[in-house]
Amino acid sequence: MGSSAEIPRAPENVLFIEDMTDKQLAETLKLPSGLTNLGNTCYMNATLQCLRSMPELHQSLNRFTGGINTGYPAKNLTASLRDLFQQLNQTTEGYSPYVFLQMLRTAFPQFAQQNNNGFMQQDAEESPEEEPVITKDVFTKLNCFISERRSVNYSKYTRISRLPEYLTVQFVRFFWKSLIRKKVKVLRRVKFPLDFDLTDICTDELKKKLLPVRDRLVELEKEKLEAKEIGYDSKIEEIKKLVDPELAADFGANTTGLYELCAVLTHTGRYVDSGHYIGWVRKDDSPDDWIKYDDDKVSIVKSEEILKLDGGGT
């Protein structure tokens, strides 16, 4: 016996994420492309991915009309960065930043230094031993102090008079240890937030300009949490009116005193001259998701994983 109905089709093959290749995973999850490691270039790759998260940088680079081979290393570097970002936006596969690397080494020869193993690893904070400082003083008598010297405590205060739109904060984990004449890494854990209020360490003059809009934003955030409202769209005009006119006219300045973490660059490993660098960038369309750039390996992680990047033994 048979049926006049259409013979059911066989189910399509199901491909699980765990079985996907890097290319299939990137296309399915719409992940941006990674950068191929060209030999100790993981710090450069991670830094480029962090810089890539700045839309203003893309806009400025796209306005640059120069090409490569201009005879000016700085212009060649700018053109190669522009071309690299454009090429990264057109592919989901790992991309080789070879041209940019060549332009970087030409403009900054220190990145072309080599040892017996090839090109040397470049780090976030180079820590060479400080050169001795020699000065000459003119004097007509030699003082011999016969009383005890007194100890004096000094206090130093630093205040910020202008905040940039993008703030770079570096935990200086590499330093020169003179006792052993070697660079070492500080392994202690340092906690950091996803949101950062910097108004407390600004000058009184700048603080006066920042506080009206900062305080209103804090209030709106509290209202959103209590009422479970979404976004500040209906309050944008109100917030704009609170921004100080001088700060509004200062292109590239922060007008609120508030920062939201958008990128992190980490070093894994206990030693300065080895280890590996990874870039982590917040996803624009999903604030709780972050993109992990491990050279050409790209994946998605949650915000809670970012907060675990506080250092320690790795």
TrEMBL record:
BP-aspect Gene Ontology terms: proteasome-mediated ubiquitin-dependent protein catabolic process; protein deubiquitination; regulation of proteasomal protein catabolic process
GO molecular-function terms, A-Z: cysteine-type deubiquitinase activity; proteasome binding
EC supergroup of this enzyme: hydrolase
Source superkingdom: Eukaryota
UniProt KW keywords: Hydrolase, Protease, Thiol protease, Ubl conjugation pathway
Hydrolase as UniProt keyword: yes
Identification of the protein by name: ubiquitinyl hydrolase 1
